[in-house]
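Entry:
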Amino acid sequence: MSIQITKHSESFSTAPQIGVEDVTEIARLGFKTIINNRPDGEGGPDQPASAQIKVAAEKSGLAYFYIPFSPGNMQPEHVVEFSAVYAAAAKPVLGFCRTGNRAATIFKQSQTSTEAVHPPVQNQSSMAWLKGKCVFSQLCSWYKTKCPLMFLCRNWCKKA
C-alpha cells in the first residue's frame, strides 16, 4: 500500500490513518518515530487499534506514541504532551490521524506555543536573566532548542 505523506519540516511529516501493514514501509522511508493522534474506535471496527500499530512499530524498530484527541477538541495538555514527546523523539517523526489534519495542527501549535512561551533571550543583563521565572526555559530559549523538560517548566513556572 502506498502511504500519502505530507512533509511539514525536515523532521516532521503527517499521513492519514495508517494500518499495521504500513509500518514496514514507514520504517523503510526512514521515519524513526510515529505519533498517533486518533482515538481508538473513532473510525469504527475497521480502524486498527493503537496497541496493534504500536506492536508493529516496535517490531520495525520505531518509537510509538499515542496522544489522541477528537476533531476540534485539542486541549493545551495535548500540545504540552506532544511538544515534550516531539522534542525527545528520534527524528524524523510521522504523525497521523484520520486525514492528517489533526497531526499537522498539533505540530504547528506546538511550534507556535513553544516560541511564544519561551522567547529568545536577547540583550539582557546577567542579573535580569537570572531573575527569570525558569532557568531551564531561559537556557533552552538561549540555545534555541526544544527542551524536553518544557512541559515541566510550563506547569511550574507560570508567567507573571
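The two ends are 51 Å apart (CA to CA).
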